[in-house]
Amino acid sequence: MSNEAKALKQQGGKKFDLQKLLTAGALIILFLFFFIYGVFGRNVNGATFISNILESAYFVGFLALGVTFAIITGGIDLSLGTVMMCGALVGGYAYNAWGWPLIGAMVLTVLIPVAFGLLNGILIARLRLPAFIATMGSMMIAQGLGSIITSVQTQRWPTAAETDGWFKTVFLKTESGFPTGIFWLVGFFLLAMFLLNKTKFGKYTFAIGSNEEAARLSGINTAKWLTLDYVVDGFFVGFAAIMYGATYTTVLPGTGNGLELQGIAAVVIGGTSLAGGVGSMSGTFIGVFIMAVLKTGLTSIGLQPQWQTFFVGVVVILAVLMDIYRQKSANKVKAA
């Protein structure tokens, strides 16, 4: 590697690290503001406030970790929300109507999004459909399939008081309120970070996002690895479905539209470029908690859901503008 190339890499890394530092600082400021205002200004219970933040982060966190792989390749996954709900619906139906044991229903819940991830990967990597179109089609298929299989019936996952009450205890929180769900989120965050940073899979993911044609010409089987990116995405979406069932218990047919935007927004806020080739799991993790703090904090100060959506939209636009500025700065360095 030439000295010029090394300098360029170091400069790009510093800019990306600076963005992550700013994002982490924003998370701390937001948390302190809402915590102080809510707890001391509106008499919100501090432990409940933190618990609500964590519970808001669980399923969004898994969605965001999964779609980070797809976005780094330069793609997108609009099917996240409805595929997650399809998995939770069919898994719940297997448990309630077919009499499956809870473990079997959970396995099915994960396998359905993995299958959709494989479908998306084939459509995008093999059949060369634009990711936007392919995943939009999958989004509608998943929404319809969940309703068809369950006959448009609401499904329920076990509560703490029922026979399989361990489900809530293991995936959400204990009876004393200890947040066991955070261990699952952190564990899968570490897994995602390992896959992205320490494996051939992660290396090829960045290569495809930076320049897919150059990666192909260098000998990388881009179709294979791009398909695997969407399969891994589906795997994380499957666990998001389990966390959704543990958090909310009730799963409604025909829902899920819009939930994908929460996961994608967390990834963008965390600094992953929509142009591909740039991103990190640590940034996504921070973005997830910025989303969770905004949602919980705005509720704690009495703002209605429409205001929450408004402010999240503003934050996403600012994050994208920062990404555009970073790309322009990088292009100027290359031109020089």
Name its key features:
two-stranded antiparallel sheet; mainly alpha; 76% helix; 2 strands; disordered N terminus; 336 residues
| Order of helical and strand elements | HHHHHEHHHHHEHHH
What best-fitting shape do the alpha-carbon axes yield? globular
**Secondary structure tally: strands:** 2
Please, what is the oligomeric state? single chain
What Rg, in angstroms, do the CA atoms define? 20 Å
- What is the topology, as strand order, of the major beta sheet? 1-2
Weakly predicted, low-confidence segments: 1-14
Proportion of residues in β-strands: under 5%
Structural class: mainly alpha
Major pleated sheet: 2 strands, antiparallel
Distance between the termini: 18 Å
